[in-house]
Amino acid sequence: MKNRLAQLIQRDGRALFLPIDHGYFQGPTRRLERPGETIKPLLPYADAIMLTRGILRSCVDPENTKPIILRVSGGTSVVGEDLSHEGIATSVKEAIRLNASAVSLSIFVGSKYEHDTLLNLARLVDECEDYGIPVMAVTAVGKELEKREARYLALACRIAAELGARVVKTYYCKEGFEKVVEGCPVPIVMAGGPKVDSEMEVFEFVHDGIQKGAIGVNLGRNIWQHDHPVAMIKALRAIIHENATPKEAHELFIEARGSRK
Ligand code: R5P
Known about the structure:
Blueprint: H1 2-8, E1 15-19, H2 23-26, H3 35-39, E2 48-51, H4 53-59, E3 68-71, E4 73-74, E5 87-88, H5 92-97, E6 102-107, H6 114-131, E7 135-139, H7 150-162, E8 167-171, H8 177-182, E9 188-191, H9 199-211, E10 216-218, H10 221-224, H11 229-242, H12 246-257
Helix pairs in contact: 9-11, 9-12, 11-12
């Protein structure tokens, strides 16, 4: 367990996870139509990649040496009845065979299927602990993006940790994010959500979230849907691993992009 966690969380205690699992319920998401191509230039800057077994098998070179966080929950789609109705879609045996460093699963606190997704997490933890595999719980909100506020996120993160998650992925919120972190005894990484208009907004929230105790990000669309994804990930890496300020990260972004536009 310790060894696997050390593959994901770097020696400085921080982490930059690159998720490309979106297709498991969104289909061919914009700029993730060919995931292998999307991640090729980004891989050197990521500490781990998060994805499903199907994309791992068909789009990622098996000689890739980046740690894998295997998304094992699923069974819903954006056009289906209820995004919260997820089950466990990949076995722990398969995770071991694919040499995953961790597995991830969504919980939907406050949804119709809250109970089922929480028990999915508990059962997955039971099984994974036998093999020393960390479980990263994803506090998912489905289409209800307005749920991303401190009271709700603190509740969901704490429940995930109580049920045995070793890492929790949640959203950042401007007000009270420190309360989310304080109430969660395991490391928190932040997702980005739908792409926002300005890169500075991303640098600012990642920086602020880290000041308030998050260990890093599990951030996808705001990197690979950007016109300059490599510049984005380089700048984010500087915030996470080199304590760069948002301004310094932006300078780096401009430099990496190669023009002031
Ligand atoms: C949802 O599709 C997945 O759990 C993503 O891994 C997560 O939302 C992070 O990606 P993004 O930063 O694009 O929201």
